[in-house]
């Protein structure tokens, strides 16, 4: 009598649907339930004509930003409940960009014009480095008022000559630069100004005032960004971290040709030297876990932490503005 056949496990015959968004359009693909993100990437390449080398997945919540080849690709089944955004041009889009930028297209449509020749004096190595060591995505919070203004603010930070120069020097590559919702990072005791997740996967910055009716001072936010960039290398706030943070701030100011590397007035609004006590110990207040916190009590040996110093700088800035206003009203025309 023949033995009955053993049925194969149900998991080998089951499939799973995974949905992701590309260019604002949702797509749903079906794969075996045992598939990984690598299998999804391969299927996307064949069905949507997006080369694997051009694909970047933004998965929220974690694992965050992933780009092929994946060291430890997660199972698709673990991603079903997450929001997945796919970044990357299709083959058709790449071809269109290539044809539009080809000099022949210009000469054929306008024979009397000479094709533009590539500049021999342009630093192409610098251009390539700036495309590599940058913020690869900018995301304002669309549910807050006037997200277009936040987008422009983030673009200004990304394109800041000093920030670009420092990121090239240290080879910093950040997945996403986004804004922080003040309501989610404010307590009675403290306000978080910046956050670096997973050493450069995502950097969040507090752009807005607490009442959402305005934006904070650009240079204060840029200094916060310098702090968060230092967390790409050092997690804890030890001496190595503060040395790097201080170097980045100096590099950003020196390379900012738009301001000539100098402040726009004689008032001192922010001085990284103030973070250190006379004994040279690491500041003990306000900064924790990759977050730049304004108003935190902290614990340490320094009597004045960066949070308290930043509060004082903002107060000085407001006082300077008030003095300049009174001087203008009085017709003195003198400097503050």
TrEMBL record:
Domain of life (superkingdom): Eukaryota
Region annotated Disordered, chain positions: 97-119, 296-336
Compositional bias ranges of the Low complexity kind: 97-113
InterPro entries (alphabetical): Ubiquitin-like_domsf, WLM_dom
TM annotation in the entry: none
WLM domain span: 126-325
Pfam families linked: WLM
Biased composition (Basic and acidic residues): 311-329
UniProt protein name: WLM domain-containing protein
């Amino acid at each position: 009598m023949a033995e009955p056949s053993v049925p194969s496990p149900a998991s080998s015959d089951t499939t799973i649907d995974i949905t992701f968004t590309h260019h604002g359009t949702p797509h749903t693909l079906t794969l075996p339930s045992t598939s990984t993100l690598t299998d999804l990437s391969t299927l996307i390449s064949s069905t949507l004509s997006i080369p694997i080398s051009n694909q970047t997945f933004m998965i929220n919540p974690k694992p965050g930003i992933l780009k092929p080849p994946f060291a430890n690709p997660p199972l698709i089944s673990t991603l079903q409940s997450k929001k997945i955004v796919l970044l990357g041009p299709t083959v058709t889009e790449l071809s269109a960009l290539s044809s539009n930028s080809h000099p022949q297209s210009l000469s054929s449509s306008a024979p009397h014009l000479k094709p533009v020749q590539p500049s021999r004096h342009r630093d192409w190595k610098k251009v390539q480095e700036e495309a590599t060591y940058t913020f690869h995505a900018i995301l304002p919070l669309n549910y807050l008022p006037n997200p277009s203004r936040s987008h422009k603010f983030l673009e200004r930070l990304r394109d800041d000559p000093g920030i670009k120069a420092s990121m090239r020097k240290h080879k910093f590559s950040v997945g996403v630069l986004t804004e922080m919702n003040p309501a989610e990072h404010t307590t009675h005791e403290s306000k978080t100004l910046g956050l670096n997740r997973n050493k450069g996967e995502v950097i969040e910055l507090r752009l807005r005032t607490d009442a959402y009716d305005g934006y904070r001072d650009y240079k204060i936010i840029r200094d916060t960004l310098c702090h968060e960039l230092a967390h790409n290398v050092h997690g804890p706030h030890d001496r190595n971290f503060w040395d790097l943070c201080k170097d980045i701030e100096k590099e950003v100011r020196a390379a900012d040709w738009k301001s000539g590397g100098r402040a726009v007035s004689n008032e001192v609004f922010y001085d990284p030297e103030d973070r250190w006590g006379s004994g040279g110990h690491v500041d003990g207040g306000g900064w924790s876990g990759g977050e730049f916190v304004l108003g935190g009590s902290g614990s340490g040996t320094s009597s004045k932490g960066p949070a308290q110093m930043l509060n004082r700088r903002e107060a000085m800035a407001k006082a300077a503005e008030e003095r300049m206003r009174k001087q203008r009203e009085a017709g003195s025309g003198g400097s503050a």
